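> forwarded from #structure-qc
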């Protein structure tokens, strides 16, 4: 069951923009993050939740999509995320959250996928622009953004060939993600 969820939890970049992500789901995603591991149990991460089209329209232009797919400018109108979670670090608590951000992101995305939603971690963010748009105080560092919605694309995992890690999209619009085999990961 957990493996099924992990398999389904792909990075989705095209959505049915008309599908609202309920605020209660965004809150339950933060609840999953809240219950996750935290270095020194400092719990320095904070979250801003958005599921309205006005805010989503403001956030979208600050994000960069699928760096390997140079010819694709990102999701077009109608297939853009209908919600975002902006993950922040409270610098008054610490400026080193080790890997809390990734653990929390995975917990949140698994929660979304379990409810037939999905998303993509966006690390390539125009942070100062986003800070201005959302009026985020300097106290908080913008770590990353989760772009969320009802996935409207098929994503499949392929065995890696010729060490080529670049994801790509085929003529049918299916997104392919090459993954290294387990024997490459385990060092004997
Ligand atoms: C920390 C982190 C930052 C990422 N930043 C971006 C990003 O800025 N834009 C994007 O389109 N995808 C981003 N991704 C998604 C990766 O490209 C994706 O995880 C990878 O292609 C593997 O696909 P999968 O998540 O379906 O396994 C990011 C993923 C991680 C973990």
């Amino acid at each position: 069951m957990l493996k099924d969820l992990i398999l389904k939890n792909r990075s989705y970049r095209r959505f049915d923009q008309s599908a609202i992500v309920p605020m209660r789901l965004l809150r339950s995603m933060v609840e999953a993050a809240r219950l996750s591991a935290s270095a020194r149990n400092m719990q320095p991460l904070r979250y801003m939740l958005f599921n309205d089209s006005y805010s989503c329209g403001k956030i979208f232009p600050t994000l960069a999509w699928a760096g390997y797919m140079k010819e694709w400018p990102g999701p077009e109108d109608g297939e853009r995320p209908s919600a975002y979670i902006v993950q922040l670090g409270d610098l008054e608590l610490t400026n080193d959250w080790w890997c809390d951000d990734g653990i929390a992101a995975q917990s949140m995305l698994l929660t979304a996928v379990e409810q037939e939603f999905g998303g993509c971690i966006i690390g390539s963010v125009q942070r100062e622009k986003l800070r201005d748009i959302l009026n985020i105080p300097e106290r908080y560092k913008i770590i990353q953004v989760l772009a969320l919605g009802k996935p409207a694309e098929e994503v499949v995992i392929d065995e890696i060939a010729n060490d080529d890690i670049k994801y790509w999209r085929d003529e049918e619009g299916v997104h392919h993600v090459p993954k290294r085999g387990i024997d490459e990961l385990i060092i004997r």
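QC bot note: The two ends are 29 Å apart (CA to CA). The first strand starts at residue 15 and ends at 16.
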